[in-house]
Amino acid sequence: MSTESDHAKTANGTMEFRAGTPGRGGGIPLFAPPPVDQIAVEERAASLAKRSIKKAAKVAGLKLAIRMMDLTTLEGKDTAGKVRQLCRKALTPLDSDPSLGPCAAICVYPNFVAIAKEALAGSTVKVASVATAFPSGQSPLSIKLDDTKRAVDFGADEIDMVIDRGAMLAGDYAKVFDEIAATKEACRHAHLKVILETGELGTYDVVRKASDLAIAAGADFIKTSTGKVQPAATPPVTLVMLEAIRDHYYATGRKIGMKPAGGVRTAKQSLHYLVLVKETLGDAWLTPDLFRFGASALLNDVLMQLEKERTGVYQASEDFSKD
Q1: Active site residues
Q2: Mind listing the pLDDT tens digit for each residue in 68-89?
Q3: DSSP notation for 3-32
Q4: In the CATH hierarchy, which fold is given to the domain comprising 38-311?
């Protein structure tokens, strides 16, 4: 049972809890949010999805979505040639319209970071690498940290780590916090995206607690999913995570990024996510520095919609490269 000394009131009146198991800093600061109202979250996400975005605003939104995309290839059959082709597409998403793009980043396994860095040299496209025993996160911390350091040594600008969902669901928050904090330290100059794998966390309340924990441990971004588990990103889960970012910003002034990944496949869906961001966090977050899409299948649908807006007719899907 907790005692009065275990708790302290924060400036905004919420309760701060320091876990009994010492962490890297002698305990983990966790802000206890109110329980997530499932009905309210789902109704708000659904209502924002009904916003009608047309003509110039639609085109502007879709072009912005392209600049926010992390193109990803994380398959066992990946090759150097496939990675180079993905880099070319990130640089110039549509050959016939050089005004589109570039994308925000590409995400690859550590072994391909150097190849991607060479292909993207001189551009603004970042190279992200998965680490920490992606996608399971089920390896000793020493191996996870070696994985991270190696990716950074290869030149990764960003690291996408996965949390230990088993520890999170068991209530071992100190372990989850410590691993994120240690990974952040191992990242050195690279930005850290913390993947919660929300499809395995079970409830919005756990998603919110995991979001708060990742932010407190030093995440630069919080990310919904690996793309290997279903369900992946959903608007209600994304809204819960955006609200955690909003509350942290109000309390500290620090801006944290957000990345829904997996399940965002259509141009229409991408516009709805941008509405979620604007209505929850405001225009300041409508930038690739603070919002990304992790969606390998999304880019071509957005390109098809833009060509439809430009020409008045849909292009055939085979007119776009499938990377």
Answers
A1: 160, 223, 259
A2: 999 999 999 999 999 999 999 9
A3: -GGGEEE-TTSPEEEE-SS--TTSS-EEEE
A4: TIM Barrel (3.20.20)
